[in-house]
Amino acid sequence: MKINKTGWIIIAALAIVGIVAVAYFMSNGNKNDSQFQTEPLSRGNLTASVGATGTVRAQQSAVLAWQTSGIVEKVNVRIGDEVKKDQVLANLIQASMTQSVIMAEVDLINAENDLDTLMNSTVGLSQAQLELATAKQAVDDAQDKVDSINYQRASDNLILQTKANIDLAVKEIALAEDNYKRFAKRPDGDVDKAAAMLRLTTARQNYDTLVSNYNWYTGKPTELDIETYNADLALSKAKLADAQREVDRLIGGIPESDIAAINARIAAARSTINMGKVIAPFNGIVTQVDSIPGDMVTPNQLAIRVDDLGKLLIDLQISEVDINNLEIGQAVSVSFDALQGKPYTGIVNKISQYGSSTGTGVNFEVTVELTEVDETIKPGMTAAVNITVREIENALFIQNRSVRNLEGKKVVYVLRDGVAEPVEIRLGSTADNLSEVLGGDIKEGDLIILNPPSPEMNGPFGG
After folding, report:
1. Residue 328's CB: how many other CB atoms inside 10 A?
2. pLDDT of amino acid 457
3. Verdict on whether the full-model pTM lies above 0.90
């Protein structure tokens, strides 16, 4: 059969259309596969963590200031020096300090001497025993007077004897007067006149004493006397009780209250003396020195700073969303902007139980303790912290970028026979770019589409 020119043109056109059609259908059939980025669903390990940034600080920091005015005499440390607790780091010239600080030296000496006397001397006990004996005698005497209120003050024989002695005393006075008259006109200084005067004076005094005794023996106490006797007895008994307690106190050993009182005086004196010194409150490193010898300083003026760099802490602000995932002792990884490429570790040391509102949410303060410390880490450095909250092993994981929200549910797209099928899943812990798969119609080895279609597409791309 002979084909003319027009026929060849038609055949050629049909051939071209056929080739284009074949190319179109081949490309359309492979189009779905070529534009998907897939990854088989696989098992692995996941470390879930909570991240935050904070500032390094020492566990203990002390900014030591001068407590009194004066002139600096010595500064015994430099920045970087290690110091021990109670070490004197600097001091003032004694003569430049206030009088109260200087006089504290005298108070300290006196208090220490008093303590030594209290601990070693027996004078106090001896004095107390003497006062006890005196108090007992005073009670006996007072009791005798009270007893005399209801009883006869003297026996009948003593009263009769005293009456007879009074009669004799009257006769003696008369004889003495007659004798004195014999020498009365003699000049003063005469021996006989002086002897006569002495005899007369003695006779009169003896008479007065006998009459007084007789009156007391035969008389009765007045109401005032009775009140006085009873009051005197009560007072004597009270003094006796005090004296007995003091003896018992001293015999039982040195009273703790006395020792405590003197020790308080010693402590007060030393505290005043130490106002002229800068003393380390704990073991640490000197991180700042602001005084030099010769400086005139005033109270509360900064002198020296000491930090305990043996334990460094980082304070973090953790959102209320994550706070319940944290526990004391959880492992921590730490990195520093100033120490690039050098990782450090730590643990959660403290978790606040009270949240603070920030305006955008509620944060809780969490403190991390560095377990690796070297001289390159310094207080004030910024630290990036990741707290490991959970370790998951041998679980199914997918990349977070493959997850979509479809009609309020979380789905992933699985490539099955060249078609992207949405599958609802349930996710667990998330870390970085991975999430744990807890449930769903997928299994290990399924091809998960990493660049899934938009949620409204419910079939193969280009379908």
Report:
1. 11
2. 46
3. no
Q: Which residue numbers in the chain have pLDDT < 50? A: 1-32, 456-463
Strand order in the sheet with 88-92: 277-279, 88-92, 70-75, 296-297
Strand 82-83 and strand 284-289: the pairing is antiparallel
Find where tokens 């002139």 sit. Answer: 71
Kindly list the structural domains of the chain, giving each domain's residue range(s) and its CATH number in brackets, ordered by start. Answer: 48-56+310-449 (2.40.30.170)
Give the span between the Cα atoms of 389 and 445, in whole angstroms.
28
The DSSP secondary structure of 17-59, one letter per residue, reads: HHHHHHHHHHHHHHHHHHH--EEE-EEEEEEEEEEEEEEEEES
The Cα–Cα gap between 13 and 7 comes to 10
Phi/psi at 316 (5° precision): -120, 155
**What pLDDT was estimated at residue 252?**
65
Query: Is beta strand 70-75 parallel, antiparallel or unpaired with respect to 296-297?
Result: antiparallel
Q: Produce one character per residue of 177-196: b if its CB has 16 or more CB atoms within 10 Å, e if not.
A: eebbeeeeeeeeeeeebeeb
pLDDT for position 454: 65
For 176, residues 6+ apart whose C-beta sits below 8 A from its C-beta are: 196, 199, 200, 202, 203
**How far from the centroid of its chain's Cα atoms is residue 343's Cα?**
34
| Coil/strand/helix, residue 283 | coil
Report angle CA 312, 314, 316 to the nearest 5 degrees.
170
Q: At what angle do helices 223-251 and 123-147 cross, to 10 degrees?
A: 160
The answer to whether the beta carbons of residues 326 and 365 sit under 8 Å apart is no
pLDDT at residue 15 in the model: 46
Sequence-ordered alpha helix ranges (H) in 36-155: 99-120, 123-147
User: What distance in Å separates the CA atoms of residue 424 and residue 403, rounded to the nearest whole number?
Assistant: 10
In angstroms, rounded to a whole number, what is the distance separating the alpha carbons of residues 325 and 376?
31
β-bridge pairing 382-399 and 419-431: unpaired
Q: At what angle do helices 256-273 and 99-120 cross, to 10 degrees?
A: 150
Strands (E), 358-403: 362-370, 382-399
